[in-house]
Amino acid sequence: MATSIKVGLAGFGNVGKGTYDVLQRNKDLIVKRSGTDISVKRVVARNTARVVPLVAEDVIVSSDWKDIVNDPDINVVVEVMGGIEPARSLILEAISKGKHVVTANKALLAEYGNEIFAAAEKAGVNVAFEAAVAGSIPIVKGLREGLAANDVKWIAGIINGTCNFILSTMRDTGRSFADVLAEAQQLGYAEADPTFDIEGIDTAHKIMLLAAIAFGVPVNMQKVHIEGISKLEAKDIKYAEELGFRIKLLGITKNTNYGVEVRVHPALVPNRRLLANVEGAMNAVVVKGDAAESSLYYGKGAGGEPTGSAVIADLIDIARTASVDVSERPKMPTVDSKHNANPWADFGDTVCSYYMRIPVEDKPGVLAEITRIIADNKISIESLIQKEAPQKVHQTEVIMMTHTTKEADVQKAIRTMQELSSVRGPIVLLRKEELH
Amino acid sequence: MATSIKVGLAGFGNVGKGTYDVLQRNKDLIVKRSGTDISVKRVVARNTARVVPLVAEDVIVSSDWKDIVNDPDINVVVEVMGGIEPARSLILEAISKGKHVVTANKALLAEYGNEIFAAAEKAGVNVAFEAAVAGSIPIVKGLREGLAANDVKWIAGIINGTCNFILSTMRDTGRSFADVLAEAQQLGYAEADPTFDIEGIDTAHKIMLLAAIAFGVPVNMQKVHIEGISKLEAKDIKYAEELGFRIKLLGITKNTNYGVEVRVHPALVPNRRLLANVEGAMNAVVVKGDAAESSLYYGKGAGGEPTGSAVIADLIDIARTASVDVSERPKMPTVDSKHNANPWADFGDTVCSYYMRIPVEDKPGVLAEITRIIADNKISIESLIQKEAPQKVHQTEVIMMTHTTKEADVQKAIRTMQELSSVRGPIVLLRKEELH
């Protein structure tokens, strides 16, 4: 593909416009670096009248995505519409016509990636998706190429800016989740319906894609354990801080002896770790490889031009390497992969250390009851503090940190403790990630 | 190059052994990811008897580097000997025989890169050097490919682990430079002759290479302003801390209106910045692009396997993309580049904000004299504190932070102040980098 790349751009929201603007502004640089002229021939958007004044005169703007697929001049389709349909149909049709695809659509790839990657491999085209994970950060390339020599042990990432903004603000101000969410919505950091972000689903899509790349597993959202941040209380953030930790919503995937773990949940991270110091809406991903050891990649996880930067990096890659034999390109696993009959770990087998906050009656013997249950479940206590519960008479809170132990054992201990008459409310359970 | 890669490995120190070990251990993964079998056919090392028991039986070990160049089977030479000769001759001869080269040799490339890159381009082979900058961190690939859409504004990096270990330890313990250097030497973090590291030369080599990639300038070590850390005093680290900064040895390159700056010096970094929190012997590089905005890359900057990880990433890249037309591969600038007649900024034109520590006589009117000189040189003061100098009678120290101003003006002001009879010793000048 030494001649030229003619892009069909599907979607002209924030990311579509950012991609277009950067392509125009840095045209000379990009030609120099890619050895190829990359230009947008068509834009498809719902509201064409809004788009026309924002693009050059020779760009054809229309509202039917089939216009892109049916244009034989277009050799790469950039899909930045988001959502499942019509993005899925567009991508599959583009592939079937031999067009390469660049997409920022994490939800689509995490749900339908196996079908899409298999179709692309059959057709001998690329489906590139640097922009789908952590915006501007070249983590897909980093994993596939920069760290290609490594047997990756685990990946942990702050990959949802909305959640990290909320958690950073809760910590800085001591305010409640609901209060800070409302502010985030006002500032445009959170959407009117914030479910995808705050319930961890967006993080789950992204960590699923990173797991697929790192461990060669097909995508399977059923296997991801997902907890969001909506139930997190300001006081746990404060207690964690006192213990030397910050609470972050992490996407985590590990290649363990009992299978591949993929999980999303708030986690206590030691405050000396660089990841704990990622503040506001920023994203960061830590990768542990056997040779490179720990490395971290940090940057803007969203925004028109930062995400556009990743989209264009994929376009340049396609320009540079489309002549490479398909068999030598980095591959995505598909459901047909032979190694992957059942690569998944059971969530109950997860080994972690834990933070528990147990609201209890303030009377002699309670601590003995609790520590007995903990011991019965083979859990070893690292530290234990009693906190006063100023609002409630005759009640205290026990904050317990455990050594590493099995998730299933902890769940069982909690169920048993929860039945004690001296336990006066739901036990809060958080996981600790040392990241070493 | 779909068939196979036969490596000639020149050097079997820490990095050579790390590369070899990782290639062996992760052979299956690497074949899967590269689509190519990568194996070491020959090792060249001074002490062959030491190497033979460390490699497989079918690896040919000898002590003459020409054995690698003259073996027609070998299609990639990995140079991890270090030093200028014979590395330079080996690389040039390998290129002339049509072999690709992978090297970790920053000193060689920063000094002789123009000659080497020009020869490689002429011969149609790659000279890959991910391992030469920041060890395991895929920053060369990140800049060239991941951020290829960006007009890069500046790069700032902690890219010498020895210096960062010394500075982190000085800050943690309040101990002197000499004292901590001795400890670093004992721990193996610093060499017996630490000049290259502590005087900033190693950092300068690496930032020069990053400048060449980002801005398309030929390498030219004459244009780098270099200050190391050997004169840094514990008290400046303490004062900086009180003001909210940490002192790091940074390699900095900026593309400004007055030319490309490349400089190495200790710098005050605001302690909320992620870069300020990079501790111990770790490395990190921040890149500011017009589209991606700020991104940061962090990891191990040295060590056998971490550096080997980068060497092998380059090998895999060569395996995957050697079929790509040379004109489409990322290029290194050479002295022949047309755009680069004189791309360099004068150091005096550097715009920065500054930290000064001025030892002065404790008497009325001294501050008036100093601030008058500052004002005469069009420098605007951001803050000013007087510190007692407990060891010295009738003497205090003025700590001054300036707003952004021109280096030449600051230098002039310092020369003038230094002549005052009330200034009782050399003025300490440090630069502040906000990194935004």
Topology (elements, then pairings):
2 copies of one chain form a homodimer.
Chain A: E1 4-10, H1 14-25, H2 27-34, E2 37-44, H3 48-51, E3 60-62, H4 66-69, E4 76-79, H5 87-96, E5 100-103, H6 106-123, E6 127-128, H7 139-146, E7 152-158, H8 161-173, H9 177-187, H10 195-198, H11 201-215, E8 225-226, H12 234-242, E9 245-256, E10 259-270, E11 282-289, E12 293-300, H13 304-321, E13 351-361, H14 366-376, E14 381-388, E15 395-402, E16 405-406, H15 407-418, E17 428-432
Parallel strand pairs in A: 1-2, 1-4, 2-3, 4-5, 5-6, 8-10, 10-17
Antiparallel strand pairs in A: 7-9, 7-11, 9-10, 11-12, 13-15, 13-16, 13-17, 14-15
Give a description of the structure.
The structure is a homodimer of 436-residue chains. Chain A is built from 15 helices and 17 strands. Helix content of chain A is 36%, strand content 25%. The first copy, chain A, has helices spanning 14-25, 27-34, 48-51, 66-69, 87-96, 106-123, 139-146, 161-173, 177-187, 195-198, 201-215, 234-242, 304-321, 366-376, 407-418, and strands spanning 4-10, 37-44, 60-62, 76-79, 100-103, 127-128, 152-158, 225-226, 245-256, 259-270, 282-289, 293-300, 351-361, 381-388, 395-402, 405-406, 428-432. The first copy, chain A, is an alpha/beta fold and 436 residues long. Chain A has 3 domains: 4-136 and 304-332, NAD(P)-binding Rossmann-like Domain (Rossmann fold), CATH 3.40.50.720; 139-300, Dihydrodipicolinate Reductase, domain 2; 348-432, ACT domain (Alpha-Beta Plaits), CATH 3.30.70.260. At the A-B interface, α1, α2, α7, β12 and α13 of A face α1, α2, α7, β12 and α13 of B. β12 of chain A pairs antiparallel with β12 of chain B.
